[in-house]
Structure formats: C-alpha cells, structure tokens
Amino acid sequence: MEKKRSFTKGEQMNKHLVDNSDQKLTTNDGSPIFDNNNTLKAGERGPSLQQDHIYFDKLMHFDRERIPERVVHARGSGAHGTFEMKEDISKYTCAQFLQKGKKTDVFVRFSTVAGFKGSTDLARDVRGFSVKFYTEDGNYDLVGNNIPVFFIQDAMNFPDLIHAVKPEPNNEIPQAASAHDTFWDFISLMPESAHMAMWAMSDRAIPRSLRMMEGFGIHTFKLLDKSGKSTFVKFHWKPKLGVHSVAWNEAQKLSGFNSDYHRQDLWENIEKGNFPQWDLGIQLIPEEDELKYSFDILDATKFIPEEVIPVQIVGTMTLNRNPENFFAETEQVAFDPGRLVPGIDVSNDPLLQGRIFSYMDTQNYRLGGPNFHELPINKSSNQKHNNQKDGFSRMDILKGEVSYFPNSKASGCPYQAMLNGTEGYQSHKEVVDGAKVRQRSDSFADHFSQARLFYNSQSQPEKDHIVNAFSFELSKVSDSKIRERQVAILNQIDADLATKVGANLSITPSKELDEMTLKFARQNHPNYPLDKVKTEVDKSEALSMKVKKNEGTIQTRKVAFLVEEGVSKKSVEDMKKALEKEGAEAVLIGKKVGPLTFLEGGTVTIAHTYLTDPSVLYDAVFTPNGKSIELLKRNPDYFEFIHDAYKHCKVLAFAKDAESLLQKSFVEKDNGVILEKDSSDYSSVFINMMKQHRVWEREAARKVPS
C-alpha cells in the first residue's frame, strides 16, 4: 500500500492558520454576523432573548477560553525550530531522526516549575526544557529540565514534593517561591533531595536567559539498534551562548521591572534573527556497565560526571520561529516522556516509570479528553492511522464502517507495521525477574557524595551564592526545628557550607542527622546510613558556570549607553561599531524619549529612558564623551543606574571625559571598570571583560549584594 507523505510542522500548522484580513465576521460555524455589538432583545430596552444563537456562540466560547493550567510548569514560553543530526550513531540506534544528516522540526517549551501562569520569570526555580521532535516515525518528546537531577527517586513522592513547594494551603502564600516552611519541612526529611537542593540554591536556578541555560533529559534512557541491542544514554543540551545567570538581588529587581523578562528575551531575539542554538550531547553506557559505577544510573538524583563518561556532541537544535498564537501552541502543547519512537526506550528508573503514566493522564484531563494529540501543535507530521474514534474534541473523521482490528471488511487496514515488511515500535527485550515489592535498592542510598561533588566543583563566588541562597531561604522558615534539620543535612555535604549557613541563622550545625530525618530515610533503607562509597571524581569542571578561558562570547548581549544632550556622536559610534562586530547590541538611554542632539550636530531618537529601563535589563554599561557629562553629573538617575550595575558585578566602561563621573559615585576601579585613559584600545578591553559574563570577584572585595 502506498505510504502517505509526511508533512513538515510548518505545513501542518499552516493548514490550521487563520488570516482574518479582508474577511467578514462570522460565527464559529461560518454564518455572517452583521452586528457584533448588541444582543437580540425584545425591543431596544427590552429583555434579551434566549434564541440569540450568535450571542451564545460567542459567550460560550469565551467562558471556555481558559483551560486548567498545568499543576507544575504552568508558566512557559515556547518556540519552533529544527534539529539537525550531524554525527553517525547508527551503531547505537535505529531512530530515524538520529541518523546523520537528518533534519527534524521541533517545538520547545521552557518553563518554571512552582509558580502559576501569572508568576514571574525570575523566580529561583528549576526550569523545564522540553523538546517535541516531529519525526517521520511519529512524535518523540524529550521532557527535561535545566538541572540534570531531581529532588526525589521514586514517582510515589512526586505529589508530596509539589504539594510542599506550592503555596501553603491555608493562605495561598508564597507564590512561585520555595522559601517557606512546607517546602523545607519536606526537603529536610528527605536526604535524597540534598543533591538537587544544592543545584536549586546555585546560580543555575536564576538563569540570565532561556537561551543561556543547559537542558538535560534527567533520566537514563535506552538507545536500541536494528537488532534490538540496548545502550543506556543520557541526553544533554549545550547552549551555544554559554551558561549564565543573574545575581539574586538582580533577579528580585527584574521581577518588579519586567516579570516577563525571559519570555520577552526569547521572543525578541528570535524576531531579530538571533536564533538560539543548542548542541545535543549524549553519554553512552554499555548495557554490561550498568552496575559499574559508585552511583546507580537509574537514580534520578544522580548524574554521570563528564570526566567519567564524556559528552559526545551529535547534533544541533536551532529555534527560528515564534508561535503565531500563544494559547494554541505554547499553552496547548502536550509533552509526555512516553511519546517514543523506534530506536528509543525508557529505563527502569522508578521516577521515569511513574512519569509515563502521570504525563499522559494530566494531558487527558487538562486538554479535555483523549484526542489532545489531534490539536495542530501536538499532531504528528506523518499522520496517525488507527481505529480509535469519538471522544471529546475529536477532529479527525474516520472513514468507512470499520473501527476494529483485526478486520477483513477493510482488507485488514490499518495493518500492523510488521505485515508490511517493516518493524514498528519495539520495546527492549529485557529479562525481568523479581518479587513484587515496595522497596528501594541500596544502590540508591548514597545521598551526599554527588551533592559534595557539585559543591566542590563550584568557583568561590558560586559557593558564596549557594551559602547566601540557603541563608535567604531558611531565614524565611519560621520553624526552628526545620532550619536545624536542613543545616544538619548541609553538614553531611560540607562542614564549611553548613558553618557559614548556620552562622547566618544562629545555628551550630549538628554532626548527625535529625532523628525524624533518619526515621524516614530508614523506611527506604532499613540500615541507613550505609557505608560511604568511593566516588570516581572529586571535582567536575562542567558543573561550574565560570567562563572557561577563550570560550566567552557577547553575542546578543545588550549594552546600555547612558547619554544626554551634547553627547559625542564619534564616541557613541566607535563603541557601538566595536560591540556590533562581536554580535552585541547598543541601546541608548536618556532622560526622556524623543530627539537628542549630538555634540557634532545631528540628532538621534531616544526610545529608552531611566524610567522604563533600569540597569538590571542590561548586561554592561558605557558612558560616552561629550558635553553630556556635565548634565549627567546632576542626574541622580544616572548614578542609580551605574551603582546598580556595579553592585550586580557588571562591566562598566567610561570614555575619557566621562571618568570624572566616578568621583561622584561609589564605583571603585577594578578589572570590570574600564577607563579609556588606561588603554588605547579600551573597547577591546571592555569586550573581553564582558566575555567573562560578570566580575563576580567584586562581591567579596566590595561586599555588594549577591
């Protein structure tokens, strides 16, 4: 039988794209409407009539425009793109989209976990990083996060974790925040959460941009070759722009100035043609090495250090198109780790096993029934053919009288893939033998080694940020016993960490875990704590966000040029040209919008002011030359701008005449304060310092907020 051709996702979506240009207004059934302002009444001032089908058509749709928001990952941003496979891994997998040279349409949704749809982008939180591949063999969903591990080991605990981190049920406080009693009560009783808590309290939890964060599949999956041979695999997304964060104090201010900061950043950069890219990396573990390591590869609270198994880069994903409609695409997209294609299978990770049910179930509920896969954003590009029919929101029309299998009346169609000489989806033929039990392997019982590895791998500023984050969060916990329990857990990770956090909370860290913590730990492992394991590595360079030498970039970074009447056009243009050559953007900020006159004559239109654009929206600051300097000396908004940028460890550059402004500020000269008098090519010095992302050392030296 002739195989139907596959459609690209662009073609698929365009079939449902509606353009209202030059079209008559109609009801949802296409009936023309001549008056869309008045209900049908019995007389001009009489009662409205029940027979007004146009009104009911409009209002019934309006009443149902909001669907249940996601319980977790409610606040999201999405984009379309393509994935191109660049390396040959055919010896490991028969997945068609993972064959060298293949290009596959994708839709990616980024999200925060804890907050509601209306919460801020800049909450300290895990970020969802989920990719839907529209492959020729159907949809494959890689449902991950920007952190490679998770809080819990078994899906049975997932509702409890989310109940704990959500607003407290008695007062619905706090929103999109983990700094409260119920979350830390749960975490302090779950030693298995210690590793993830370290990541969540690190700078990874407050990314600079969605375009500048890593993605991870979290779980161990399986690749299957044509013969059915299995290889364990971990998936990684490595951003081309590097991995960067904001300062915590800066994140708090950003939430006030622009709670849509990440969403807007992603949208605007795609619109400008600054298409974000990530390399897909894989770590491969032969089946026979499953039990080789000090950690269990089925434990979602553990990762595989890159020094133990290197990450192989095999392909690149590019996001190049914004959604046409947020609700129809970003809100209705449905991810499910059970959406698999031939060549990929799941492992026995108990958290992953539970997610396979949970995601399917929640999408059925949230999107109104079992036909959510027929929504354009979820529809597979190769179409579907089966005998399922009816149900809420059914869109496909099943032809003919047959809706069962097997059948003869439709010549056995649709037929099983194997009957056509090809193989359909095959699960890994794994030998499984064991008693039915509710218990956990002792190989899952080491809760602190990798938390310690993560902390040891951080730079000193990153360690300081973790101390500050734990201190901030636990300071908001009202129950002193919870604080003491958590500090005791930190003491199992690193004594210096526990001592510093404890000092900020007036707690002397206990060397032993709390009795209640031990009680719950022993429910999973009766002999807990078990003997310490010897880890493969003590440090891993890949775990630190510190920019490696010669690896920094300023592409798509935004630099604030602080200007006033009489600013030197040459000073502005020289720096602007140098920055744009490196892919950065210069934005002029003045006291008011409208025309501004250059020192040399001519004008420029100012679209950004101190009122609308604080320093937290920019990556670096430049003050050019000109008569403008005298006006800036009398402008308190100017000094607030550079002071905040300085506090947040950003690079500041001052043209020659502008250096006099420093005398009126508390900005002190350091490696991140660039003066024209110090170098004939100070723009290059400015750019090279920007490539380091931040001057984090300034925090220790100046005692400025982190």
TrEMBL record:
Keyword field: Heme, Hydrogen peroxide, Iron, Metal-binding, Oxidoreductase, Peroxidase
EC number(s) recorded for this UniProt protein: 1.11.1.6
Enzyme class: oxidoreductase
Biased composition (Polar residues): 23-40
Domain named Catalase core: residues: 26-413
Domain of life: Bacteria
Protein residues bound to heme: 70, 109, 158, 355, 359, 366
Recorded family membership: Belongs to the catalase family. HPII subfamily.
Function: Decomposes hydrogen peroxide into water and oxygen; serves to protect cells from the toxic effects of hydrogen peroxide.
Name of the protein described by the UniProt record: Catalase
Species: Myroides guanonis
